[in-house]
Amino acid sequence: MNNMIKQAKEVNYKPNLIMVLLIGLTMFIVGSIPVSYISLGLHEDISLPVNDLMLSFGFVTLICFLYVKLIEKRSIRSLGFQKHNAIKFYLKGLINGIVLFSVIVIFGVVTGAFTFEFTVNTVKWHVFLLLLLGFVIQGATEEIIFRGWMLPILSARYNVIVSIAVTSFGFALLHGLNPGISIMGVVNLLLFGIFSALYTLKEDSLWGICGFHSIWNFVQGSIYGIKVSGMTIPGGSLLTTDPVQTKEFLSGGAFGLEASILTSVVLSIACIYLIKKMKEKTC
To answer: What is the DSSP string of 49-113?
Structure first.
């Protein structure tokens, strides 16, 4: 049995799927409250990585950790943060994230979905580095909530299929009000949720998907200059990618490449690959 699920089975209180979604949503809401009262007087470019990514998501992670320790009375490591192979899994996740998103970008260029130019001279390097750290925290936080906590708890109470479905729905719901959201954007958010769940279950660890999610967002915004789930990332980018208006189905339009059919295809293939590998492992 998956070790993360096994440890979740030992928890006395396993909320039903509605309560799991409500508790998870509450973690995000409560975690964002302290930042709204913190006035650091930061420049607009620095405000997003520091306030919105580092502090806000950092507080969410803290709340989740407190819940696990005080309510469920288990260790933080039980969320998938085991010591064994931690660095290996994280680095592998970083590489996989860079490669997978770059494959989508290459398909976009080949199909004429967008054009790009080198704009490395416009990069504000202090913002660039702050964004890298910010996305490390933000990406990890979303994985901690959805795949570290929700996925094992729901698997322990119901089954893996239910847990994948609920966590993927919750993940899509969290991003549902982002600017430029579209039907394809929602579909791909669901696919990313399924992919992340499968990735976590295959490795029986949270390290890899934390690295994958963080670098996926960073590469989009600060390397390729693409909107991240509809949001324009400040500080410039190494490349500037301009979507072709007549090919929004391929480029993703206002939501960015995450709303592209190309992303749907790549994520679907990745999910099939993970399922195949998991079946081989159990044989």
So the answer is: IIIIIIIHHHHHHHHHHHIIIIIS---GGGGT--STTHHHHHHHHHHHHHHHHHHHHHHHHHTTS
Residue 61 identity: T
SS3 state of residue 1: coil
Strands 114-118 and 239-243: antiparallel
Per-residue pLDDT tens digits for 229-238: 999 999 999 9
Q: How far apart (Å, rounded) are the C-alpha atoms in residues 75 and 229? A: 32
Residue 84, both tokens: 């064994």
- Domain borders along the chain are 3-282
What is the C-alpha radius of gyration for the chain, rounded to an integer number of angstroms? Answer: 19
* Start-to-end CA span in the chain (Å): 13
Are the C-beta atoms of 142 and 279 separated by less than 8 Å?
no
Residue 228 has phi, psi (to 5 degrees) of -100, 105
The whole-angstrom separation of Cα 277 and Cα 280 is 5
Give the Cα separation of 23 and 14 in Å (integer): 12
What number of other Cβ atoms are within 10 A of residue 66's Cβ?
A: 11
| Per-residue pLDDT tens digits for 87-132 | 999 999 999 999 999 999 999 999 999 888 899 988 999 999 999 9
Closest to 202 (Cα-Cα) out of 102, 110, 273: 273
pTM value? 0.95
The first and second tokens of residue 127, run together, are 């913002």
**Can you say how many angstroms the Cα of residue 143 is from the centroid of all Cα atoms in its chain?**
6
CA separation for the pair 271, 32 (Å, rounded): 32
